[in-house]
Design brief:
The protein has six helices and eleven strands. It has a single domain, classed as Class I glutamine amidotransferase (GATase) domain (Rossmann fold, 3-Layer(aba) Sandwich), CATH 3.40.50. With 181 residues, the protein is α/β, with parallel strands linked by helices. The model has no long low-confidence stretch (mean pLDDT 97).
């Protein structure tokens, strides 16, 4: 299975990198995608190199979408029509859309959280129609997975694995990252 992780300047370091790490441990293929340059700077000034520019994506090759949070959501992603179109395509094809921290608001502004349970960073739920699960750290509702904040990045990635590969695989990866056999 292949997934897209969107990176834009100001992405939250752990939400992106830890999620990518855990997903790759489960043998999921990840393509990091950026917009104007392959060079991307995280919220805490770590320079990373995206795999591909957004304009070169062949969407039919991908099974799921992951959107990390951070300032990038407000400063870049919220202003890119391409991101909204990408979410719409994945939702219409009933493919997994996973977003953490501030990123669930990108799904919510398009109306896809209406009548659904979700979580996000506190205050990012404002203006979103849906059933905000303030006390939940990770929420799965249909083909949408949302997570509250950076502290839940591993749980977020494990939930993605369970959705795509089943509980048994989630447990295998969980034991592996805990150093258990």
């Amino acid at each position: 299975m292949k997934g897209i992780v969107i990176l834009a300047n100001g992405f939250e370091d752990t939400e992106a990198i830890a999620t990518i790490d855990v997903l790759k441990r489960s043998k999921l293929q990840i393509t990091t995608v950026s917009f104007d340059s392959l060079a991307v700077t995280s919220a805490y000034n770590i320079q990373v190199q995206a795999d591909m520019l957004f304009k070169n994506l062949q969407l039919e090759e991908y099974d799921f979408l992951v959107i990390p949070g951070g300032r990038a959501v407000f400063n870049v992603l919220n202003k890119k029509e391409e991101v909204s179109e990408l979410i719409k395509i994945f939702m219409e094809q009933e493919k997994l859309v996973a977003a953490i921290c501030a990123a669930p608001m990108l799904i919510g502004k398009l109306g896809y959280l209406k009548n659904r349970n979700y979580t996000c960073f506190p205050t990012c739920e404002e203006g979103i129609e849906g059933n905000f699960q303030q006390k939940k750290n990770v929420v799965r509702d249909g083909n949408i997975i949302t997570a509250k904040a950076m502290a839940f990045s591993l749980d977020f990635a494990l939930e993605i694995i369970e959705y795509l590969q089943g509980k048994k695989q989630r447990d295998v990866v969980y034991r592996n990252i805990r150093g258990e056999s």
